[in-house]
Design brief:
TIM Barrel, homotetramer, 2 domains, two-stranded antiparallel ribbon, about 50% helix, alpha/beta, globular, five-stranded parallel beta sheet
Chain lengths: ~260, ~260, ~260, ~260
């Protein structure tokens, strides 16, 4: 933290890869979590004391090397931060590869962290959903890149923070130029994703479909629900007074088809 | 809720099996989570209004029928409850089978919920870690039952709440008596687990090993850490003044061996 | 089989979804496999008896509804057919979704079946690698479609056989038009895949890289190995006489980058 | 192989951990499999040439370090051996941990290899079904040990071959005595498993239930099916002449309950 401040670093990431358990038999979960809470509280105090203003991040990962890591995924870390009253001092550094290891879609933790205003930075690598360990591959999937960049644009960018490559070439690579090729290619993939996301937004079809799908959430009754001013009694009356609502199709395949148009052509 | 009150029910469980998404492309995560928050807030208000005093539970499940359910696991639900300020009104009803589907050990969600004072009740079934869906089998594993009952004893029991069987006989069962046999057997398994847990506690070897493993957490400096009265600076001084700590082995195999003695003979 | 013959059907697929076990405790594996062998032998004889000339297929699937299905994946089925001496009477109908459930890459069973001359037909759906059950989604991934079509072109097409959609719209679909949209879209995806595969082949870069990577397999010594005319002694002499071979990089990222060019722009 | 012969070794195991692929894009599956076939054929010839009579084993493993290993599981290896006409020269060395990584039950590959007369030796370790990598833990589960030993007894033992520990203590272990404790404990677990398996066989309840479950496989018509002397036509007549068969329950829970009695008390 001292060095980050001295160097003018804008961010400081905690990755607690050994903060977890190998067996529940020899583990006191609560003591370990409380201690982790104390640790992260002391980090907040120390940052204040040295007058640093970098952003602190926690990077979730479900396991490896431990069997179970306490920073399992985005929501688990948010729960942890809230429990120990330090949520305003940290953001999340999401590695999509870790997200799939936690059983979620590649882009899930990006989106859920963003939804709660906690997406700080992105470890822009990729994994192999069939291998149960952290492969740290270069992301070569433009569709996934487009989903991530769409989320980043929607939240107004990452500032501070950004996309960094926590990647390595595959084990079969023996040429130095592979490192060159893979970095350029993965950057291209994110550039293609950014272009696709920008087109999706400017075109407006998908955003409009999404808005339309949730349009009933803007009705008078929905606003009362949002504000905490409604009740089961009122909703019961509403349901009786109004006809059975017309069911709207989820149209997943249509969304996927339109999304494909921005990525593949 | 009205009927539960009228019947003198002591618990009311919410299982949001359809509260999740099939595709992130057509989903507004934040709106859906906020609405779920409003719903559970209204449930609190409604319970108060009708003067009911049953315990309300949320039962985590990671997926199925949806691809991703918002009540993914114990910690995700705790995060949700804290975010919407309703954590004191709900406890968790843990189904171990759902825990393995979320990528955690069978007993993990039981223990983590208990650690945070949120374990309310147990759906005492079992799953198949190799099948990716909810098999709702009768638990036939005494070791797992012992771990669960040990946790229940440690937190002083489940009151209200308890162990209920959300189980069904396998698809190949065609005899009525299988239902009889399976219920009795699974009850026996939990009874054996309870006996084993009781012996483990009375014998004291494992609890003492565990206490010993964490004994440095009771030192003067550890107490200051716990109380939030320490700092990185103090810990740095402490580390310099004191020798490198003697590393204690995790002894996982010893724990497993001793645990086995209480279960298998 | 009678009806297929009467209708002039060109193919007949066996899918043994219930031919597997739920528990090894109550199962005699060998008896069940031998009986399955007898069954498929009788099917061969019956087809001959009625003078039918349709192609018979077996469709591998690892589980669901059973915990373990005997037709686990392509190689397991090939083993089975060889053991019971009926491999020349059957081909495989591969469903990529089942392949991922068996822990293999989407395109793996297509390629391995093709490598052994056993790829007969394709159930052209897709699954969700994070959901452990058969979702039968419409394939919306052009990259995967390109890999499949590339394999199909390489083996000279599927004749008889073809691509059929064993797909259904998602649970959230309530509009009839979703069925229309999803079929058209998934057909488009395979058409895009076919165009990409054709371009890959005509462009020649990737096929040439692949040929180059295995070029030492065409050397004199390699031909002797292939023909079963070499030996460890000869290879030892060869290794001593020749210098350490220059190691060729696997260049996975370069392959992925070039492949992307044919799919994404 | 020379050294094994000189030392009087009774077995020689091939584990092809790097014989697989990282990406299908840069891989010629057929060439690699054919080369592997040539290699194992040359090993047969070399063994004959040096006049050795040790048993050769192949140890299946689905992945790690590669993304996909050609020796995926027992049935895949059996298919491979049959295809290259060397099945009588090799047996399998099964590591249960690898079996779960391939998506099968711990004991599955032991049983399936035994069913086909191919079980030669056992790497008696254990894995973690929730971690997707090879943890090589000491097996502490008596139930699993009992299933394995029951299979070994049924096939008349392993000769040559045996149970060897390919295990290591957990990462948190720092005491030398952990290695001592873990080996003794895991040996005890297999000893308990052997005692349980012996009791199961001598008691006879489970074997008799299993025999009874398959008793119709001993009928006159079943014998004709077994011998390849039946036909669909005959079976059709049989089905019409005889009443709908009385369905027998799979009784999985009863099997599990009785099995538990031999393991837990």
């Amino acid at each position: 933290m001292d060095i980050t401040k001295r160097l003018g670093g804008e961010g400081y990431t905690f990755w607690g890869g050994r903060e977890g358990y190998f067996s529940l038999l020899n583990t006191n979960l609560k003591k370990e979590l409380d201690n982790a809470g104390s640790f992260f509280n002391m980090a907040v105090k120390y940052k204040q004391k040295i007058g640093a203003n970098f952003q602190m991040y926690i990077e979730p990962k479900p396991r490896e090397p431990t069997k179970h890591q306490y920073d399992y995924d985005a929501q688990t870390v948010i729960a942890f931060l809230k429990h120990y009253n330090i949520e305003k001092h940290y953001k999340l550094n999401i590695e999509p590869n870790h997200t799939t290891l936690a059983g979620h879609e590649f882009e899930h933790d990006i989106m859920i962290a963003s939804a709660y205003g906690m997406l700080g930075s992105i470890d822009a690598n990729s994994g192999d959903p069939l291998c149960g360990w952290d492969t740290d591959q270069f992301n070569m999937d433009v569709k996934k890149a487009a989903l991530i960049m769409w989320t980043v644009i929607k939240q107004g960018g990452l500032k501070p923070g950004g996309l960094n490559f926590d990647c390595k070439v595959r084990r079969e690579s023996t040429d130095l130029q592979d490192i060159f090729i893979s970095h350029i290619s993965a950057m291209d993939v994110y550039a293609q994703g950014l272009i696709a996301a920008d087109k999706i937004i400017k075109d407006g079809t998908l955003p409009k479909m999404l808005e339309e799908r949730y349009s009933s959430y803007n009705s008078k009754i929905a606003t009362k629900i949002d504000n905490g001013n409604s009740s089961f009694e009122e909703l019961e009356r509403y349901a009786i007074q109004n006809d059975e609502p017309k069911q709207k199709s989820g149209q997943q395949e249509l969304y996927e088809t339109i999304f494909n148009r921005f990525v593949n052509w």
